[in-house]
Amino acid sequence: MIIPWEQLPAATLDNLIESFVLREGTDYGEQTFTLAEKVEHVRQQLQRGDAVVLYSELHESVTIVPKDAVQPGSNVT
Question: Which domains does the chain have, with CATH numbers?
Answer without folding.
Answer: 2-69 (1.10.10.610)
